[in-house]
Amino acid sequence: MTKRRSDRGRELPPLVMGGFKLPAAQNIDDLQKRQALMMQDDIETTDVAVVERPTEVVESSMQVQGAVGRVYQEIPVALIDQNRFHPRSLYPDDVVAERAEALRVQGQHDPIHVIPHPDAPGRYIICDGWTRVLACVRHKIKDALLAEVHFDLTEKEGAFLGYQQNEERSAHFHYDRAMFFKSLLDDGMRLVEISQLTGTDETVLSHYSSFWKLPSEIMDVVLANPQKFTVNAVYPIYLTFNAVDAHQALKLANRYQKEDRSIAWLKEQKQLIVEHQRTTRKPRKAPGTKVNYANGSFKQNGQDFKLALTVEESKVEDFRRRLEELLEEFAVTSTTPAATQEEATD
Q1: I need a surface site. Which of 31, 50, 145, 256 has the fewest CB within 10 A?
Q2: Residues 158 and 297 in one domain
Q3: Domain membership of residue 256 as a residue range
């Protein structure tokens, strides 16, 4: 049996897309240089790589050519747009407020990551750091943020950069991952590609689809406590919904939440509900069909078929031959003594 990779503690593969490779952890010297950049201190020119920027990028209040060919620039938050493949979907008010307070008290420790907007010169699309952008917009903390501008990434590649940054820094809710995976699938990516880029097993990826297959009344319960409703919790709830109905799945989700139950309990309850449904469900009667013809009628009632037909004399033998061929395939030979000639003619 193949072991599934756990979502927790897994090692993410290096992100390699286009001409970009996610860099390894920065050493102390590089970190000091980045901090100096944010404080607008001078850096020795021998360590600075000059990179030519596209002419359509609007000049901002500060732009520094950083080490190893990086471009750092202060960008007004009003010019930063959300990535359409955003790796996070949930931004709780308390989390944004906490980030705003940290920016107010401590300032900005690390740059956000952006790409130039391909369709709107002078604007940018976020790769990593949208929570800080929201904190500045909602709480009026800063008008601009220091950003590392990536000129060699597509919007999707930028989203993968943000995804890995988030996973290493503060892992996503499973709902966030599900919506991120859905946006990639909707754009034409295959499960195997997403699996290779995120380090998530393909089977686990398919289970994440449970999040967007559940009806809204169940998702309201899930989103009220996204930390508790992991993919391992949502999947058995979806199986209950799929095998039984939304009412039973909603009851199960509510009990799991309100009674603070375990995943093992949830799976056990799902199995009990599904088994109970199987044993108590009454077989539904198949709909009937009746067709009248000028020379007879055909009637179906579930598994029962009745045919009454008067055939022209010249076609009797042909009809009988075809009918016998059909009966030979579907009719079950009787084990009782053969019918008498008198019974056959009745």
Answers
A1: 50
A2: no
A3: 210-280
Task: Judge if 155 and 272 occupy the same domain.
Answer: no
- Are 226 and 173 spatial neighbours (Cβ–Cβ below 8 Å)? yes
Are 264 and 295 within one domain?
no
DSSP assignments along 321-346, one per residue: HHHHHHHHHHPPPPSSPPPPHHHHH-
Say if strands 71-76 and 144-149 run parallel, antiparallel, or are unpaired: antiparallel
Do 157 and 244 fall within a single domain? no
pTM of the model as a whole:
0.64
* Rounded Cα gap, residues 317 and 319, in angstroms: 5
37, 159: one domain? yes
The tokens describing 290, both together, are 């009746």
How far is C-alpha 286 from the chain's CA centre?
Answer: 37
Looking at the fold, whether 231 and 122 belong to one and the same domain comes out as no
Q: Tell me, yes or no, whether 116 and 260 share the same domain.
A: no
Q: 312 Cβ partners below 8 Å, 6+ apart?
A: none
pLDDT in tens, the chain (346 residues): 443 334 444 455 554 444 334 334 343 344 344 434 433 333 333 233 333 333 333 333 334 444 445 799 999 999 999 999 999 999 999 999 999 999 999 999 999 999 999 999 999 999 999 999 999 999 999 999 999 999 999 999 999 999 999 988 877 899 999 999 999 999 999 999 999 999 999 999 999 999 999 999 999 999 999 999 999 999 999 999 999 999 999 999 999 999 999 999 999 999 999 999 888 876 555 567 888 888 899 888 878 889 898 989 888 888 888 888 888 878 887 654 544 444 444 4
Q: Which two tokens stand for residue 344?
A: 């056959």
